[in-house]
Amino acid sequence: MSSIPDSASTTRPGDASESPSHSDSAAADESTPRLLRGPRLAGLPPLLFLCAAAIVLIAALTDNLPSSLLSGFAITMMCGGLLMWLGQRVPVLHDFGLPTILCTFVPAILLFTGFFPQVAADVVAGFVEDSGFLDFLVITIIAGSILGMPRALLLKAGPRFAVPLLGCLALTFFLVGALGAALGFGFVRGILFIAAPIMAGGLGIGAVPMSQMYAGATAGNADAFMGQLMSAVVVANVLCILIAGIYNGLGKRERQLFVGFNGHGQLMRIQRRDIQIDTRPARDGATFVALGQGLLIAAVLFVFGQLLGGLLPFLHPYAWTIIVAATVKITGLLPKQLEESSTCWGEMATTLFVPALLVAVSLTYIDIGDVLAAVSDPMFLVLTAATVIVATLTSGLLGWLVKFYFVEAAITPGLVMADTGGSGDVSVLSAADRMHLMPFAALTNRLGGAVVLFVTSLIAPLLAAAL
């Protein structure tokens, strides 16, 4: 595994930290007016951003903001771009997921305190619930992630890597559920409200679609669940980064704690000639036609998932979409060029729109009162910390048993499963000083997140009886 070079791309679906929305500087083009040069906010020069924000704000305050798809994009992309930019400007804390935290909670706080126009919040709610932005981005993530997974990595290294990945998920679900039952929180609630959203490997494929599942299972509203789910994910992400730093410190000691404890970035303790992953850069398919093809593939997968969900309602449509996408990938039904198109579309959409999604979710689903109640609950904090600790220790142990180094396996899949995905992976691997493990972090989130969402769809019907 150590033969994988560092040149593997570190731009991940859902990783807003690489988004153009907070690129530090514009191109130094002499033809660009001086007022339009400098740092960018939401992809715009500051002067243009302020003008655009003023237009949207005046429209909202005068009750002339149309309730449409374009208005939703305008509000969420500008808010997300600004908050991402602010988060990236804070030294040290930007490595601990601050941009994501700001996008997740600041809009909800502003709405809660009355500083965000209610008219704009209503437009965003319609943007998410009526215009289908949530489905659009979740399915984009699923399609791009699964179809973009290296087939050689899945078929050759996957079986060995699946032991710590799947074993970690199973043990974490069971042990956290058991701890929840022992503390009076409940076995099913411990899994669905703590373990599942944390272990999904990201917000887009975790807390967001799970809240929809839970709402469907209980005939309730998604916003009733979103606050606690998002709180668990964010708190767990901070813990993951701190533990990664501890692993890095332990790894620098001269003496290892035990044989096979630290691989100094090398994942496997044995070398196998038959596991050679093709890391050649993919063909540049990010053309207008290719992006359109990727959009069409994601759209058809969405419709297919909805069709199967209607005919076979024992699984959520998201779960059916995952099954269909995985089947297409494994069987090779799509030409390589169309797989690359789907991946290009997924990476483009998630890179641009994840900040917008976080803002939209914050305004639509997060009740700050519920969040404050969750983080002030000692049981919530205990179960959240237990999830991260169990995930990293079981992953490391199971990986060690199949000839991986303990520290590397404890980081990926262990910590990578429990962070926020994308920018969370970058922060965790950076804290652990093992950025070259990013291809395995990608595999972890793509495969593990799909498995978690699938298993959650099977358990979610039990929620009504558990509440």
Task: Give an overview in words.
With 467 residues, the chain is mainly α. It has a domain at 133-273 and 284-466. The chain has helices at residues 46-61, 69-88, 98-112, 118-129, 133-147, 151-182, 187-199, 207-218, 223-251, 288-311, 317-331, 336-365, 368-375, 378-401, 406-418, 423-432, 438-459, 463-466. It starts with 45 loop residues before the first helix and ends with a helix. The model is unreliable at 1-28 and 273-283 (pLDDT under 50).
Sequence-ordered SSE layout with sheet pairings:
Elements lengths: L45 H16 L7 H20 L9 H15 L5 H12 L3 H15 L3 H32 L4 H13 L7 H12 L4 H29 L36 H24 L5 H15 L4 H30 L2 H8 L2 H24 L4 H13 L4 H10 L5 H22 L3 H4 L1
Helix pairs in contact: 2-3, 2-4, 2-12, 3-12, 4-12, 5-10, 5-11, 5-12, 6-7, 6-14, 6-15, 6-17, 7-9, 7-14, 7-17, 8-9, 9-13, 9-14, 9-15, 9-16, 10-11, 10-12, 11-17, 14-15, 15-17
Features:
disordered N terminus, mainly alpha, 0% strand, 18 helices, 467 residues, single chain
How many angstroms does the end-to-end distance come to? 45 Å
Sheet having the most strands: none
The chain-level mean pLDDT equals: 80
Structural class computed from helices and strand pairing: mainly alpha
Using only CA atoms, what is the Rg? 22 Å
* H/E topology pattern: HHHHHHHHHHHHHHHHHH
The low-confidence runs, each spanning 5 or more residues with pLDDT under 50, are 1-28, 273-283
Number of strands: 0
Helical coverage, percent range: 55-70%
